[in-house]
Amino acid sequence: MRDKKRPHSDAEQQRGGSSAFLLAQIGAYAATQFGERLKVLGVTRPHAGILRLIALTPGLSQQELARRLAILPSQLVALLDELEERGFIERRPDATDRRTYALHLTVAGRNVLEQIGRIARDHDDAICAALNMDERLQLNALLGRIAEQQGLTPGVHPGYRRLGKKPGRKV
Predict the structure, then answer these.
(1) Which residues of the chain, if any, have pLDDT below 50?
(2) Fold assignment, 22-155
(3) In this predicted model, what pLDDT tens digit does every residue of 73-117 receive, in sequence order?
(4) Within 13 A of 56's CA, how many CA atoms are on the CB side?
(5) Where are the domains of the chain?
(6) Residues forming a β-bridge with 28
(7) How far apart are CA 83 and CA 77, in angstroms?
(8) N or C terminus: fewer CB in 10 A for the chain?
(9) Is the distance from CB of 38 to CB of 44 less than 8 angstroms?
């Protein structure tokens, strides 16, 4: 007897694979397409995520940002250096601990983040064009439940964990 929660394999074949496969397929496609859309701004997906987190938490320390992204602080430094060189962020000595830098968006950083937001909304509309608004809301709620059950950090792409890793090398 088949588990009622588990779709039949013939239904999976008709859909093109299991739910997990479809999520991975769409996720990889969506991430690649978003990266392509960001190229007009000269920023990468990791840059966009970092700018978003700094905007949500002005004054966030480099160490705390690295913790939230689940990457080594040394891996984060290169990305922050790029954003600082572009004039999108500034590192300020923390008021409570002068050994720590607090991260802040500059005016240019806020402007590029607004542009990233427009690109992200257009991207979301393009990816979900096959769904009506009610279906999109339902999909978002269902995916949110799955992400929570899997212990994923809200608003943080798990791809940051792979930054700096080379194939065949354990980090």
Answers:
(1) 1-2, 166-171
(2) Arc Repressor Mutant, subunit A (1.10.10)
(3) 888 999 999 999 999 999 999 888 888 889 999 999 999 999 999
(4) 11
(5) 22-155
(6) none
(7) 10
(8) N
(9) yes
